[in-house]
Amino acid sequence: MRVLAAMSGGVDSAVAAARMAEAGHDVTGVHLALSRNPQSYRSGARGCCTIEDSRDARRAADVIGIPFYVWDLAERFHADVVEDFVSEYAAGRTPNPCLRCNEKVKFSAVLERALALGFDAVATGHYARIVDTPDGARELHRAVDPAKDQSYVLGVLTQAQLAHAFFPLGDTVKTEVREEAERRGLSVAAKPDSHDICFIADGNTAGFLGAQLGEAPGDIVDAQGNKLGEHSGTHGFTIGQRKGLKIGTPAADGKPRFVLDISPVDRTVTVGSREELAVSELTASNPRWCGPAPADSVVHATAQLRAHGDEVPVVATVQGNHVQVTFAEPTSAVAPGQAVVLYDGTRVIGSATIDSVQRVSATV
């Protein structure tokens, strides 16, 4: 099988490519140049797509003994991921750029190009598993290593995309991957993982958004509309945020306040207690199913709301292009723009983008 191995320059993608080659596939490595102005070096575990990363990927390909190319997808990445990220924050929503990158770039642009060039599949270093069913379908499942599981950000993949995908690391824990890289003589064996948003290398998301959107001062208010302070832009806040609110007046009960709502139209940020964050249900749209759409309109499942969040029991009601998710127990810090990913055990059912939430405090 002809396989295109996406090689970021990190240890995971290098080992994934090596495993595919060792399994007898005809493997070609490709590094995706996603930055318009790539820096020469990373800063520790921040950022990616630097010149150093592309060189690390090339060296790994040489050790593995596979052809290697660099594909410039900077414009596609900027349009589909960076601009989407900025516009979502400008609208008061909280997007997940890694999820959008998987949907629009790695398993859309790259897979489409790979198939057009005669490749059969794309392999990446994501921690997730694909399980082939007796009827010939492919299911996306959680990785064996729960600490590294990335099925949440892959929940946007369709059955057609899974049919041409390989995740060779899904049955391995991270320590074993590094040990294997060392045995294979890959120089990236001890390279730090990238933990932050790749196009914000200094980790200062608020500063990045401020430079893109400018200042738009407004008020910070409580749930009753009382002004508590001021801010320089709603894009500097996310639902559930506690730190950095800069409210001079303490709460009457002395407890911390959290961001409850963000309204870019009137430039208002509403804050309240932890209890006021509790959500009983949400409405999401544009579902993407990792296999056939659920046969029943009502699905008992578990849901994950953040990349490293816990699963919670839910009942999901599917109505065309919308999904209503009701929580068995109230949950907190649910933000419009995030993805809700539904699971049946370890299997990913699909995902949808959160549009609105119903807070417990609004119903009592």
TrEMBL record:
Its EC number is 2.8.1.13. Residues 208-272 form the tRNA-specific 2-thiouridylase MnmA-like central domain. GO terms for molecular function: ATP binding; methyltransferase activity; tRNA binding; tRNA-uridine 2-sulfurtransferase activity. ATP binds at residues 6-13, 32, 125. Residues 148-150 are annotated as: Interaction with tRNA. It catalyses: S-sulfanyl-L-cysteinyl-[protein] + uridine(34) in tRNA + AH2 + ATP = 2-thiouridine(34) in tRNA + L-cysteinyl-[protein] + A + AMP + diphosphate + H(+). Residues 280-354 form the tRNA-specific 2-thiouridylase MnmA-like C-terminal domain. Pfam families: tRNA_Me_trans, tRNA_Me_trans_C, tRNA_Me_trans_M. GO terms for biological process: methylation; tRNA wobble position uridine thiolation. Belongs to the MnmA/TRMU family. This is tRNA-specific 2-thiouridylase MnmA. The lineage of its organism: Bacteria, Bacillati, Actinomycetota, Actinomycetes, Propionibacteriales.
